[in-house]
Amino acid sequence: RLCELLDNAGRGWRKLAEVAGVEKRFKCSAEELETCSLKVLEPRGSPTQCLLQLLAERDCTLKYLLGCLERMGHTQACQVLSSAVQDMIRITVQPESQVVAKGTRVSLTCWATGPPGLVYQWFCGKREVPGATAPELVIDTATPPGQPEWYICRVNCGATFAFSRWAHVQVEKSSSPSSASGYCPTMAGLQILRQPRPCCLAEGDTLALECTAIGNPPPQYQWFRNRLPVEGAQAPQLQVKLVTTAERGSYSCRVFNLFHEIWSREVDVEIGEGPGQTSMAPPPHMGCSGSALPPCPKPPSPPSPIPAATDKVALLIGNMHYLHHKQLKAPMVDVHTLSALLRQLDFKVVSLLDLRKAEMQMAVNEFLLLLDKGVYAGLLYYAGHGYENFGNSFMVPIDAPSSYTSAHCLCVQRVLQSMQQRHTGLNIFLLDMCRKRNLNDDIIPQVGALQVTANIVFGYATCADAEAYELSQGEFSNGIFVTFLKRWLLEDEKITVLLDKVAEDMGTLEITRGRQALELRSNLSERRALTDPIRPPGRDESSARNLQWAKAHVLPESRHLRFDCGVTVQLGFAAEFSNIMIIYTRVVATPEDIAKCEAKLTDIPEELDVDLKCTNKESPEEVGSPLAPTWSLSCPSCCLYSRLCGLQKLRQELVFTVCLQYRYRGMDDFVEERQTVSVGKPLIAKLNLR
Question: Which residues form the Ig-like domain (predicted)?
């Protein structure tokens, strides 16, 4: 309908492109507008459809599009767009029921899509929770344990509304063995309270296994039988009625959330022909370490031609702000895009921007700690300046001098040699950098012979002695390599076949034809894909690398600061990358005698990369990040935002001051109160990369 209205009218698609282009990242080039106009020559072609597709690829929101149509004065198009989405409020993230230890804070989350201006309201039972008008509800469980509290969230736009499902929060005494005694979600991430138990059943019985965990964010579940996922088994309880011998085997449960994962013990389920013995859930007072639980039998290794894939890990580095060389734009967007896609494929991802040489080396060292025998895939992606001499590739850190040599850079082949020593099943290098000869460097590095492992894949963004290019499409656009790579990355294809398809696609781009072409080097002898599923690891082999990975992804917990004047300020955190964090402040409670107040961050450590002109901003877009639309969704409204970069440079815990300025009714002067806040070492700072 929009295409019908905008394809031929005077206030049509060209006017929409002009109005939308006021925002830099939505501005279309002359070539893109020409491509849109040529769509009229196709049987069902539509210039408007082509333009909307371009805007969609740049993450244009429905709210922004509607605003553009309103500025055009196209009332009919506005009505069509508004009416089409008015009844489309859809809950995309439901709040999860949780069992928590007394004294911990728990977060319930409800996200919805729909028309602009969605309003959230949380309820406890039938009572509105005062001030709970954000997608996230933080509950203080310091109250005594008792009956579960039931929570639900209403999302509305005008008279149209939708309710989330109910979630109950059960608080357990910290002295109970089944609760997380001393449990701290910030450090531990997840903890299993109730482990599945082995059982022996007869055909026709009901199989009932249970795995209960607590965590923040709330845990999710996936059951496995014989180390393969059980379809549809994504709840704490696994129940199968009328079992047959086909259900016998070893069962375990993968428990995970956004930042962490752990596995339950693996238990055997025997199914015979005689009378069975139903599985009994452990009593409430028994936890995962209770003495009444039987010892965990060692599971048999099921015969399978697929290697035991216990983990897939990725290190993504993007260098943009060089001190002595041309600055780049695409690495930030490229790293963010690949992070999101690889997480969909169950990769553990560490994403870092703007690293000096020592920081790059330390980041690689920490990455190597995540790799071990049984790790299915180790993937290293680098976007930034680079070069190639004598068959060796070098990644250039941001502090490299103007005439740099291999002594100032990291050699990719040395990283590969270290990865081979970790016995990783599949080693993937995606190098989005130039491969021109460095005339300042005549040293031939002595890397040493590589092992013959038949598991190495190199995907170069360009050929040897050639350059890799960026497209001038604004701040929020991918580089050429990732523009085509993201189209295929989620496909269930052998990695070499996938990269071949990317190369074919890149070859269709006219402006780089004859100048940049993907080069694939591989000695991979088996069919291995990025989509291959992860299987349950043993406790010993996974705990160290899980802890190492979890360290780099722990955000400080949201907290409430109470000032002497009676004002309460919420302090919240969001991660843009593993070394870039957003801090937001929001006034959540104000006494009636205070007319105006706001809370700002001050005294931020000098070693961090912080532009003071971009701190304490009223909108996410003002903090200087083109990725603001991606992380601002997790932040409540009416906040002041600050962006802290270079967390790997922190020498000590992150300490800053929250300065509250307020004015009483009937008075002109502002009063000031300050509180010093310490949030420990957030995200990658815990790994001490400096």
Answer: 89-156, 185-270
